[in-house]
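Sample pair:
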Amino acid sequence: MTERYDLTVIIPTFNEEENIAAIIEAVNGVFSENGINGEVLVVDDSSKDRTISTVQGIAGRRENVRLIVRKEDHGLSQSVVEGFGEARSEILQVIDADFSHPPELIPRFYEAVRDGADIAIGSRYMKGGDIEQWPLKRRVISLGATAFGRMLFPEVTDPVSGFFAVRREVVAGAPLAPRGYKILMEVLGRGRWRSFVEIPFVFKDREEGESKLRADTIVDYLRQCAGIILFAATRRAGPVYNEWTKIVRFGLVGLSGIFVNMGLLYALTEIAGLYYLISAAIAIELSIVNNFVWNDVWTFKSARDLRFGRRVQRLASFQAVSVGGLVINMAVLYALADVAGVYYLAANLVGIFVAFAWNYVVNRHYTWKNL
């Protein structure tokens, strides 16, 4: 009879010979110290180094350690999903092999799910969380990905975290379409869940081995987000659909603001005869007011709170966020173009994307909070 466990820790691997023995030992140490009847499930993508033989040797000595070697359709997310199906417990924990996720926090994730949460998420961006020893370029990419993820899941501070635990029923039978590295996004976007908790942790860059972050990781992530949005749109229901409706409206309002800005700039300069910089200042301000009014009555539908004082507060907040978005756009452009050496047009496109994400997320959480 196959033994059942209280918790399965899934470790996806590819060429992790420097870390795998140590992480398995650390996880088993956590099990012993906390009285958890747990298994370690290593899901490997046909590593070319000694990862497989190392795990096989450990599994021969420890009954709670298992190895799955995947021969095709390689990828971290695909490995985790296969681990979901092969796990011998009702609570599933995902952790990296390189100690970037602290194994000593596993009991907190386990207890959170055992006590009723559908998903427990390790967050680098809530109070108590942090990232150590990351270069500027990687920080910018991570912040951009997180900001876009928060546009889909605004209540989750770190929806692209790779450190999480989930109840089996959330993913069992769910139409997951894994690709790339952001498997939590798939779980949030396609899984069957109602409640989550977040646990702060300090992300530490890998101690041994080579980071697998590549340029195509960004492409995979954007394709994954598009798939989640399409999945939600075809069902016209759920948190992603509701949030994406707001995002599209927010974008359309922003587009209308461009037309207002350009039209006023032309009219005030060419027809009214004002100096073009004065015209530009007036046009910018009135376009911000235009965007605020449409977002207030259409995007976020704040008809429940039309008090004059509250509207003035929302307008002031929206104005401050808009200025912050401009500063962020310029900062990202400078950081990527002058510091990281990215082509300036591509850098500006990234800056626009990050600024849009900033504007939406901050306005969603502060300007129109609870609306």
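The first strand starts at residue 7 and ends at 13.
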